[in-house]
Write a structure and sequence with these properties.
heterodimer; A: alpha/beta; Rossmann fold; seven-stranded parallel sheet; 18 strands; B: 258 residues; alpha/beta; two-stranded antiparallel ribbon; globular; binds flavin-adenine dinucleotide
């Protein structure tokens, strides 16, 4: 009984970044827990990339679009066969859908949305930001296997230079007669989502009106980041809820978070204060956002953001 | 059409968190609220009842203080309430799910509503676990719901897109913000709620062993406050071009982005 199984999700022919991160921490855990790192997926084309991130084998189930039932059955079969010590899923929509269902079927524990993981004393030890970043919990999962979902961007995706993973075809589960996927609608054309982005540029009520979000979009576009928003702007209908950062939006931890015209209410800070680098632009020197900012700029966003967008474009052109 | 709504009572999101014994939060003087996503879950169940009739039963597992949360739900329009007494704080998500699943078995239901996460501990585990334990389909992170004859259609939020799913009943739905606009309790509702008795049960009443619920599988070994952020540099952005240059320098040299 050993090894680590990682659910490897593919998008547009590549492993999702969050899955590459899960494989990377999975490889480290396998070094201490013993056994191999293996991946579970539905796309054999991922074998080469999974191998580079350290997976020895890629178990492929004959499934296509994600639905809970068949994916749970397939992954359960694999776990029964491989008997891993650890099962990891990236904390994507599908990972968060599948992990609890599988855990209940296996009668095992899950640590959710973790940003640190180690294997110690035969148990999986995980750190989780809780109470909207106001505290960190360390939890221990003592079941076999121990499961966790990894917080996107919290772990570094590192190639291990491995050979292409060996593809092992596994049996297909019966189709699900209880749930049917009717349609997938893409919300906004190819916009980078805040969940996985390395850079986020967020706008708040300081933007004054909906159309001024174009300033934030332009900067995000120039810098290669995603567009974030405060709840006040979402509630005002200026932007879709998918962009909301904070306690009742997404909790994000990108490398760079730029907030403009955001006051920094506790529920907003909850969603972004664990970002690696924080820049805040606000005309009020007392705005609470400055308490978490590494670089605070006291000034008018309508002047500074366009100037910054230009400067970024120029820098990129060189 | 009968619905059950599972209600988690959580610390007020505005509250300052203090830590006791290095592993749990200090509850003295702490204000508790109905977890914000559970409000969307409750509202949706009430709307289904208004359209199709039936009961809305709210269920919460926890110490005596959760009765306050159940009362609030009754005042908003739930018709029945069940309090499962016990130290939910020493259960992991699966322990809570087993307790709720056992309780739900004896309550007539077509739809089970949960929040997509309990705000604070943010596990996003309990709803799908109950679905598995009862063998029901799960519709997670739902922003729109239509209840038809013998089946439901739900919109599920995923990264940058939305899925439209159809499921048989009974089914588990976990509510996302946007599903509806929760109502406030009316004075009439508050008065009516006072006449409803909250039913109480213990773990043994449900045929459960404490040992399967408490201190199993996942245990919290430490709870710590994050290190104080030392506050960064603050600069005057009076001159936009200079400020932009400073920010760009920071982005390149310190964040190493670009
Ligand atoms: C700091 C801390 C960290 C923890 N980490 C983990 C962990 O990683 N894994 C783990 O398994 N357990 C963990 N626990 C144990 C945790 O108490 C339980 O998982 C449980 O409280 C559910 O937490 P949640 O609200 O985050 O659940 P979620 O799964 O996020 O809750 C979803 C929904 O389930 C319903 N629900 C949840 N709890 C109840 C309840 N008591 N009564 C009625 N309905 C309810 C509500 O509708 C809620 O919206 C942790 C506890 C603490 C204090
Ligand atoms: C239960 C609950 C959950 C919540 N969840 C969230 C959440 O998930 N996310 C979230 O963001 N909020 C959340 N909130 C709301 C939160 O409390 C705040 O109301 C909200 O974050 C404020 O948004 P804002 O910063 O855009 O607006 P404001 O607080 O109005 O701030 C606007 C800022 O813009 C600045 N400004 C104005 N003009 C300019 C200018 N020309 N140049 C530069 N700066 C300017 C002002 O100085 C001000 O600081 C929640 C609240 C509750 C009660």
């Amino acid at each position: 009984m050993a090894g680590v199984v990682v659910f490897a999700e593919v998008k547009d022919g590549r492993l999702k970044k969050a899955s590459r991160e899960a494989l990377s921490i999975g490889r480290k855990l396998a070094q201490t827990a013993g056994g191999d790192l293996v991946a579970f997926g539905v796309d054999r084309a991922a074998a080469e990339e999974a191998g580079r991130y350290g997976a020895k084998r890629l178990y492929v189930a004959p499934l296509t679009a994600y639905t809970t039932g068949p994916f749970t059955t397939a992954l359960k079969q694999l776990v029964d066969q491989v008997k891993p010590s650890i099962v990891l899923l990236a904390g994507t929509s599908n990972g968060r859908d599948l992990a609890p269902r599988l855990a209940a079927r296996l009668n095992v524990g899950v640590a959710s949305d973790v940003d640190r993981l180690e294997w110690t004393g035969g148990k999986l030890r995980a750190r989780r930001p809780v109470y909207s970043g106001k505290a960190f919990a360390t939890v221990e999962v003592s079941s076999t296997p121990a499961m966790a979902t990894t917080r996107p961007n919290a772990f570094t995706a590192e190639e291990a230079g491995g050979e292409t993973a060996e593809v092992v075809q596994i049996a297909g589960p019966a189709s699900d007669d209880k749930v049917k996927l009717i349609e997938t609608k893409t919300a906004e054309a190819e916009e980078l989502t805040i969940a996985e982005a390395d850079i986020i540029v967020s706008g708040g009520r300081g933007l004054k009106e909906a159309t001024n979000f174009s300033l934030i979009r332009d900067l995000a576009h120039a810098i290669g980041g995603a567009v974030g928003a405060s709840r006040a702007t979402v509630d005002a209908g200026w932007i879709d809820h998918q962009h909301q950062v904070g306690q009742t939006g997404r909790v994000v931890s990108p490398n760079l978070y730029i907030a403009a015209g955001v006051s920094g209410a506790i529920q907003h800070l909850a969603g972004m204060s664990s970002s690696e680098h924080i820049v805040a632009i606000n005309k009020d020197p007392e705005a609470p956002i400055f308490r978490v900012a590494d670089l605070g700029v006291v000034g008018d966003l309508f002047q500074i953001i366009p100037a910054l967008t230009e400067a970024v474009k120029k820098a990129k052109a060189h | 059409m009968n619905s059950v709504v599972c209600i988690a009572q959580v610390p007020d999101t505005e509250a300052r968190i203090k830590i006791a014994d290095g592993r749990r939060i200090d509850e003295t003087g702490l204000k508790f609220i109905v977890s914000p996503y559970d409000e969307f879950a409750l509202e949706e169940a009430i709307r289904v009842k208004e359209a199709k009739g039936g009961d809305v039963t709210v269920v919460s597992f926890g110490p005596d203080r959760v009765q306050q949360a159940l009362r609030e739900c009754l005042a908003r329009g739930a018709t029945k309430a069940l309090h499962i007494k016990g130290e939910s704080g020493s259960a992991d998500a699966l322990g809570i799910a087993k307790t709720l699943a056992a309780a739900i078995r004896s309550v007539p239901h077509d739809l089970l509503f949960f929040g997509k996460q309990g705000v604070g501990t943010d596990n996003s585990l309990v709803g799908p676990m109950v679905a598995e334990l009862l063998g029901y389909p799960q519709l997670n992170v739902v922003t729109h719901l239509e209840v038809g004859e013998g089946k439901i259609t739900a919109h599920r939020e995923i990264e940058g897109a939305e899925e439209i799913l159809e499921a048989s009943m009974p089914a588990v739905i976990t509510a996302q913000k946007g599903l509806n606009e929760p109502r406030y309790a009316s004075l009439k509702g508050i008065m009516a709620a006072k006449k409803i008795t909250i039913e109480t049960k213990t773990l043994p009443d449900l045929g459960l062993q404490e040992s399967d619920i408490h201190h199993q599988r996942v245990t919290v070994v430490a709870l710590e406050l994050p290190p104080e952020k030392s506050g960064g540099r603050k600069i005057d952005g009076g001159d936009a071009a200079t400020a932009a240059k400073e920010i760009l320098k920071y982005i390149r040299e310190e964040a190493k982005a670009l």
